[in-house]
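Usage

Read records sequentially. Each one opens with the input sequence:
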Amino acid sequence: GLLSANGRSHASIGDGHVQAPPHTTGDPLADWLNSLKIRLSDLEATQLGITFKAYNIVCTSLTIGQVLSSDQLPPSGSSTIQLSLLNLGVGCTAGWSLPIGHGDLKAEVEPGASATIDFGLPLDRAGIPQKVELTNCHADLNFKVDFGESVAGRILDWIEPLVNDKIRTEAVSQVCDAMQQTAQENLTQVIQALNREMFPNGSLDSYGIEDEASIGPLAIPSGSVDWTKAHMLNETANVLDALGPSALTSLLDSLGGHVEMVGLAQTVAHASFLLSETRLDVTIALQNVTVDGLGGVSGFKPVSADSPTDLSAEVELGTSEHPGISVLSQFSVHLATVDITSTQVISELTEFMQLSIGVAMPQVGARMQILLNESALGLNRTLAQWTFGAVGCFRDMLLSAPQLQNVLFRFAGLSQPLSMSSETHGRLEGDMAKLVDNLVTWFNAYYMRYLPAATTRMVSSKGTLDRVNKLLAESVSPTPRGQTSCLGKADAASMVREHFPTTVDWRELLGGDTQRAIDHTISNIISHNTTQILLNRSKPIAVPTGEVELDYTPREVGLFGLSSIGVLRILVPNASDASSLSNAISVVCGSDASPWHPGALATGTFSSPPRGATWNESAVVALPCGDLNVTIHALFDVHYLFGLNVTAPPSCALAAFKELYIADLTATVVRPGYCELEENSAQPQRPIDELCSSYPDFCLRFTRLFHSSGEGVRRLNIVLAEWLANTSQACVSGTLPDDSDDSPSTPPATLLFLVSVVATTLLTALPVWLTKASVSRHRVVGTAERSDHMALALQCWASDSPYKQLQVVCISSMLALSVVLRTVALCALDVVDAYLFVDLEAVGGLIRLELITFNFSTLLSYFWDSQAYLASVLLVVCSCIVANMVIVASYVAWFAPVPAKRRRSLLRAASFLARLPFIDVALLGYILPILNSNVDLPLGLEVSLKMRAREGIIPLVIGALCAILTICSAGELCPCEPLLPASLSHSNARKWWQAVRRTAGVFVGIGLTAWLFCDCLACTFTELTGDFIGTKHFSGATQIAGAFRADAFLGCALVLMVVMAPLMQAVTGLAPPAWKQGSAVRTYSDALAVLDVFAMGFLATAVEINDIAVWIFSDNLGDTCSVLDELVGASCIGISPRPRWLGTLGLCLALLGSLV
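and closes with the structure output:
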């Protein structure tokens, strides 16, 4: 709507900001007008047949003494805006020519010149302006023209009145015609456009808010990101939704309800006006924006996924107590005149003005469709590329240009009308400011009451959406396939080096205005004393316990007692050290009558739907009073940070700290703080105090860390250094820990069962079928000589007794089963695992933290890595080598044609060695009871370290038992081949040997009783675990009971092989020789009694239990244990075993009697 005198104009939008020139007088606008040089078009006039021409017209020294403006605002009829320009002045120079000669002239307006311009705005029946008319245009001015000293000039002096009148008439006529055209066309168009936005249907009937325009969903290409499955986005939205409006209100309160954005320098409009050979450039730039009255948030919806492709957000500012929000915008208006021919700036001026408006309860929201290429999310882009080329990198990820689906902007009304203010430096500037102020008043009178609805319609209209989407399509279009729009890594790195130093100077980053902003925010938070945030989360948060479904619904969080904080300063740069940051807090102690502490409060509700349990919980954490000063040395590598890939874990950013340590720490605690929990309005509990009361050694380790500041700082710095080194190395090598499960996988149980059944059937049926076929072929009844070289299974089958043949099938099945079960157990099943378990009395099992899971191969590997060499060798020799040798010997003795004497030797050796594979049972029988421990903590919590036998232990035990039963049955059930010769049987032995047997039986009974009821082992727990557990004592009975608690099957196996079988040995030794079943019972009890194996397990455990326990924790908590070791001088666990002589002697005595 801004036009030049000849009706031509040019306007554009762009960037730019020009500093205002220094003022030379008290009225900058008058100085600028006075410095203007305007070139005008040539003038030609004919009078009395004489043609007068003026050329090279240059006007300068424009003066306006005063500008008077007024407006008449009647409710109906026509509104009028009047402009009066007083004391006008201008001087022009030009060349002139006549037929009789030529020369130069000077023209000046005589003093007292003035002009009056009136614009009328007819109103319709509703009192709304419809158009603009020029109702009056008059100028009272006279020119004094000097044609020079030439003859022709003197002739022209005679007709000066005529020329003066001609110039005045032509000038006024041209200016008024231009004003008329401007009013009828341009200004009327502005009024009509304004009316269309205010009243889209042309009447006041459309005042109500129309339905918002919305663009329907577009076709979704395949491979686009599904925003509903974006975990980080959804979790962030859930957290912000839980905080709700009250949290944002508290944040705004901490900022003082004031937000200021300075130094924007963003050009919002640029216009050029042509005045013949001179161009007037007008640039309007937004400099500062200040928002006041941010007293709260009444509604809030964070950025979240409305659909797989759409994101939306919404916020409603203001509350019933503070509904109004004012926005103050400062603009700069830069005026410059430019000579078109030379393109040089002739003169320029910068003026500043402020526009302010207040809105009540504004509501802003939008929904946008963003289609990202899922495969492009993993593109290797650095932070520098995104910093300096964000648009291009974003375009590489797009499948299509973003589309604004709808937009919402509403406010309940105006709390403050539109107003203008400016800083003036003279009468002329003041007059122009008054003119603009009158125009603002005119706008408020006719349009302000319709502004809320009109703004909503305009922002939400389809035209606005189309314009925005067109702009998005032009500026953020997807990169063509096979190309890239992102800034190259080398170019981005070069820009980083150009704009940023290698390391951060904290004085520049956090000093000055930044530090003042931090201090101001902290001061506002403290000044509120109590800050309460009510949470409106309707959907509970699932607590990842791993054992029971547990939900938490937060209700309130808050701060209290902040007025007790005397000093709180964080991240304060050191004036003399660019890498130092100081932090200080000082808390004033209350009196004994009112021991007030600053702290934090949180309340919420826990619920466990499966258990039907619900309870309310409130927590209060109070800070201690005293002083704390911490100085940190932080050398931060900016170039490293910008070189990181944006897909790298956030922890990699910490690797940019090339140096990070505590340079100084001083702490003075006058009165300690506390943590107080209250459940279901019951008596409040202080769990930390209770913990330290029950386990003082544990708390003493940590309090010692702070009592000795030098030692504590040294330990903290060691932990920081190791942590930074590990993080840096992991980021460089790409070996950061993730959530993947590295535990060995096992085949499905159903598949293993089917394979085992098939294998057992085949291994049983094939030898039996071969045996039957061999008997059918030879039909050998056998003499002693012939049977001496026959296979044992063949001899039993050849008896033609169905009972004997069934025995052959059973023994063959047990032998096959031992092969299959041991193979499956050693190769495919887990044997044992260890975990930490947290039990909450209200809901039962709560948290389960897996420490380690062993199958047989990993068990060997872990034992060897933990330097438990004795246990590793025993497992390899006994469970692998000896077990397979026993199975091979059993197959040879049962199915191979071996001489009877050699077969008996083979069976006796296999019978003795068959119990050695139970070494795994013996080791677990010691390790599990020792490590299984419970610790009672405050609040009804119980933390347990648990080890349990897994499914792999069952086939190991059953397979070994099958091998023993095979050997014993082969010798005892077939009368042709007893396992023990007659000379060694109890009934046929010599009397001295019978006496030895009876003595051995007594030894077994006495030793077994002493071992079962007297302590044989004491294990003292050390390190942090020792602070809670202390020393555990084990007798045989407590050890077996502990094995029963860990696994019932393991406990039963120990009772059978360590108690019942040795007792049966004692019984057979003390039984009379005439007992017919004595020999068979002795055979089975000798094979099943594993006291010797149990003694080997005892020896391995007593020597290596500490190494095994440390390794179990190190597998999953190794880093944590190392940090604790550096921090408090104690790792997670340590065990110091000590044999107790009475129980140990009992075990040795029972072992001696068992082996006789």
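Summary fields computed downstream for this record:
- The first strand starts at residue 9 and ends at 12.
- The chain has a mean pLDDT of 76.
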